[in-house]
Amino acid sequence: MTAARAALSLVTAAFAFPSAAQDRADTYKPPTEAQCRAMVEDMRQTMKSLSPPGKPDKGAEALLAKVEKAVAENRARGKSECDSWAYIMKTATNQ
Known about the structure:
Blueprint: H1 2-27, H2 33-50, H3 58-77, H4 81-93
Helix pairs in contact: 2-3, 2-4, 3-4
C-alpha cells in the first residue's frame, strides 16, 4: 500500500508542478529601477556598517571600494540600477 501511495503522490506532483510553475511565472515581475536603486543603496549602507568601529577590515573595505566605484561608473554611464545590483550580488558572493 505504501508503494501505491508513493506512486500516486509522484503522479500528482508531476501534473501539479507545471501548473504551479505557470502561476508563478504569471505573477513574477522583475524589479523596477526604483526598487533596484533602493536595494543598491540598502546594500551599500549594510556593507558600510559591517566593519566594527575601531577594527578596520581591509577585505571589507576593499570590497566596499570596488562596489562604490562600480556603482558610480554605472550611474555616470546611465546604466540600469538593476545592473549595479547584479554586480554587487555577483561580487559579494564570489569574493
